[in-house]
Amino acid sequence: MIVDVAVRVAVGMSVLIGFNWAVGSKWPSSYYVLNDAVSAGISRTLTGFLMFRYGPLFLVAIGVGSHSRSRYFMMVALAAFWLSHVVHTGTRIYPYDRSGGLGARAWYSLQVVALLVAALVVLSAAYVIPLIDRYLPEWPALIEALVTGVFLAGAGAVAGRASARPSISFSEIEKGVRKWRSVVRNAAAAGCVDQMLALSLIIVEDLQRPFWFRRIESGLARIGLAETVGVGQSYPRSGVTDEDSIYAAIQPLVGLVPGTLDHRARHDIISARVERHNAGDEFMSAFWFVCSALERMFRSSTTIAPDGSPTVFISRSERVGDFVVLRGEAHQSVWSIAVSIEINGIGTRFVQCVELPRRSDGGRQEWETRLPLENGAFKVEIFYLGGVPSEVMYPG
Prior knowledge:
The chain is an alpha+beta fold and 396 residues long.
């Protein structure tokens, strides 16, 4: 009996570990943190996260307990499997490496809850096994099928990683821009922080700490078990808003103007500032990936406004019928923008002037113009108030 139980548990744990390795999961170090290759798609919703974390555990538990010689033997095998799962997870958990206190209690409390949920999952498998035993292959055949499946999955994952695209998709970044740009713009202006750096940081935080997880944190904060709340990981207090949370998160970036930095030191200087907020290697990798994507999505002027961001941002052009639409935003120091198309051998055509009235709140003004679809390059000329020389951009 002991040998049979040991074999079942060993194979079950091997399959579970192999699966998580194949998909790049962080388990057993953390029940929440996932490799970027899967986090954005799976952790976006609570249902997806629970299915990913406990679905494989449920299926493996069925394999471990199936075709047992008795009900008692099945329960012993499942109990041994769960205990192995607890030991494997508990001895490899990420230690809470911040200042301790409330955050440490919340972190370890979440791990305990996750393991208790795992016990319920294994127990539910015990009720399902007798109902489906007659449809499963015998145990030796099941071992062979599971081991073969894990090795095939692992080989496929390794081959896929060798040529995999970056894990955060462009569409997810676009969603993040639509979701956060307005509030980030206001918070960045209030703190004189470069808007695109702040937006990159918040988009990554939102992807790594999705809304449902932040809701759990908020609940823990109410009973004194969470140290930070919100997308910007602010200290919990009553009435905290997204803008408050974001403003707190971007404080390490205050006064940092990327356009004024030497290109050889730019990456290191910005990284040092962002690491004051989150020093994780994967966070930094994701941050720079999002920064690169935003540079492709937006063109910016070289002139820096008093709010810490370039005076003008221009989004990617969009074709609408026989026209091309160009959109952007401008600081209040810009009074007019002229958009035209330069055609080789012909010169400048279809000049459109966009006047930008000053907003009463002193914020940035969004603008939009459309030009005929022609084989040429966009030319954007920016006219400033107060005698500042005009600036020419070619957004592409």
